[in-house]
């Protein structure tokens, strides 16, 4: 019976977590799928740079693909931070290295809003973009003085804005699930094991008592 209850709770927990993951996010989500080592990253994208970007766009709710530069084999070129693309791109493609891949989950207010875009993107749609930076042409901007220290914010524009899919941060959900499973298993099976131990202790005490009583009887004789 305990095993049945354990697996029933496990199914409920897994279903709840799956539903939570399918809820559209309220903020821009930026996930790093392929990170370029620091020593190999010679150029990073900044506002004002001309970017050459491959992308595939899908709807969050259905997974339906609505556009892909990969299918056309022609990267999209645009200037970052100038409003030439949706807000989710202008904010989510900063500080990328050439060759880096990201996954952007963009809520409507950072995408096409309530109006949508044509027949492929309905109003209020949350969008998912798989992107890869192919090239960066630096634009006109101020460069740091040689020898100046680069700040952490400049390197990663806020560490909380990105998620490395191969890091412990991304796997935190799995750790929580394992912890809950362990607690459930302990509560279900721990009491049963304690009963067995208690029974064994009672048996040992009973045997000791019988030995003491037997020795007393022998002395009286």
UniProtKB/TrEMBL annotation:
Residues 1-20 form the signal peptide. Pfam families: FKBP_C. Keywords: Isomerase, Membrane, Rotamase, Signal, Transmembrane, Transmembrane helix. It catalyses: [protein]-peptidylproline (omega=180) = [protein]-peptidylproline (omega=0). Residues 200-221 are annotated as: Disordered. InterPro entries: FKBP2/11, PPIase_dom_sf, PPIase_FKBP_dom. Residues 48-137 form the PPIase FKBP-type domain. SUPFAM superfamilies: FKBP-like. Its EC number is 5.2.1.8. The chain crosses the membrane at residues 165-185. Residues 201-221 have a biased composition (Basic and acidic residues). It is an enzyme of class 5 (isomerase). One of its GO terms (molecular function) is peptidyl-prolyl cis-trans isomerase activity. GO terms for cellular component: endoplasmic reticulum. The keyword Transmembrane applies. The keyword Isomerase applies. PANTHER family: PEPTIDYLPROLYL ISOMERASE. This is peptidylprolyl isomerase. It comes from Circinella minor. The lineage of its organism: Eukaryota, Fungi, Fungi incertae sedis, Mucoromycota, Mucoromycotina.
């Amino acid at each position: 019976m305990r095993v049945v209850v354990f697996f029933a709770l496990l199914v409920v927990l897994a279903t709840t977590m799956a539903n939570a993951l399918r809820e559209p996010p309220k903020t821009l989500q930026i996930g790093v799928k392929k990170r370029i080592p620091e020593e190999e990253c010679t150029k990073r994208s900044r506002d004002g740079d001309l970017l050459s970007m491959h992308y595939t766009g899908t709807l969050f709710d259905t997974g339906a693909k609505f556009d892909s530069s990969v299918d056309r084999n022609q990267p999209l070129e645009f200037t970052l931070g100038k409003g030439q693309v949706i807000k989710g791109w202008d904010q989510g493609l900063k500080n990328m290295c050439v060759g880096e891949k990201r996954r952007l989950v963009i809520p409507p207010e950072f995408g096409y809003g309530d109006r949508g875009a044509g027949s492929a993107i309905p109003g209020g749609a949350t969008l998912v973009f798989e992107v890869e930076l192919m090239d960066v042409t630096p634009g006109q901007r101020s460069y740091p003085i040689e020898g100046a220290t680069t700040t952490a914010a400049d390197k990663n524009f806020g560490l909380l804005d990105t998620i490395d899919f191969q890091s412990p941060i991304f796997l935190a959900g799995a750790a929580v699930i394992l912890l809950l499973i362990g607690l459930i298993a302990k509560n279900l099976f721990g009491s049963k094991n304690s009963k067995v131990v208690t029974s064994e202790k009672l048996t040992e005490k009973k045997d000791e008592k019988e030995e003491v009583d037997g020795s007393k009887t022998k002395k009286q004789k």
